Amino acid sequence: MAVAQDNPLSSGNKMMYGIVKGDLTKAAEEMPAEDYSFKPTPEVRSFGQIVGHVANANYMFCSAALGEKSPSTSNIEKTKTAKADLIQALNDSFAYCDKAYDGLTDAGATEKIKLFGRDSTKLSALSFNNMHDMEHYGNIVTYLRLKNLVPPSSQKQ
User: Fold this and answer.
1) Which stretches of the chain are assigned E, i.e. beta strand?
2) Residue 97 is inside which H or E element, if any?
3) Within a 10 A sphere around the Cβ of 5, how many other Cβ atoms?
4) What are 83-142's pLDDT values in tens digits?
5) Is residue 50 part of a domain?
6) Is 73 inside any structural domain?
7) Closest Cα to residue 137, out of 62, 31, 61?
8) Phi, psi of 115, deg, nearest 5
């Protein structure tokens, strides 16, 4: 995907979203079901909890950018443990976010919204979502490596 010349800010942000969305989705599929409860140490989230946390956050950031109430009615991180359920929740959250990224233009990027109770912009909310997703993809990379799996971003294309 190339950055559109007529909307370089929003399309560049959407391009980054596509990368992290692909990496997170592939990583969730790659981890064996029996390792979704894996924690490198007792103090951190399990692999499955990270996947659920990312899904929850996607809904939060993208609903803010869309100016909507989040359609997610449960705390995915705390209510889902099965690989299939967590992958479905992650995919559903990305499908919801697709609307936010697809609908954003540079002209609308500076539209004011509330994020964490503060004034922000739609572009800032979606940029924050990208950073948050990438932060947790970094966690997931470590979990995969500890299970002798190659993360999607390191696999040969």
Assistant:
1) 112-115, 118-121
2) helix 83-103
3) 7
4) 999 999 999 999 999 999 999 999 999 999 999 999 999 999 999 999 999 999 999 999
5) yes
6) yes
7) 31
8) -140, 120
φ, ψ of residue 107 in degrees (nearest 5): -65, -35
27 and 140 Cβ atoms separated by less than 8 Å: yes
Q: Produce one character per residue of 139-154: b if its CB has 16 or more CB atoms within 10 Å, e if not.
A: bbbebbeeeebebbbe
The number of distinct structural domains making up the chain is 1
- Alpha carbon dihedral 44, 145, 56, 114, in 10-degree steps, equals 90
* Phi, psi at 148, each rounded to 5°: 60, 35
pTM passes above 0.90: yes
Q: Is 1 inside any structural domain?
A: no
Tokens 């500890």 belong to which residue? 146
Which residue range(s) make up the domain with 71? 8-151
Q: Could you tell me if residue 3 is inside a domain?
A: no
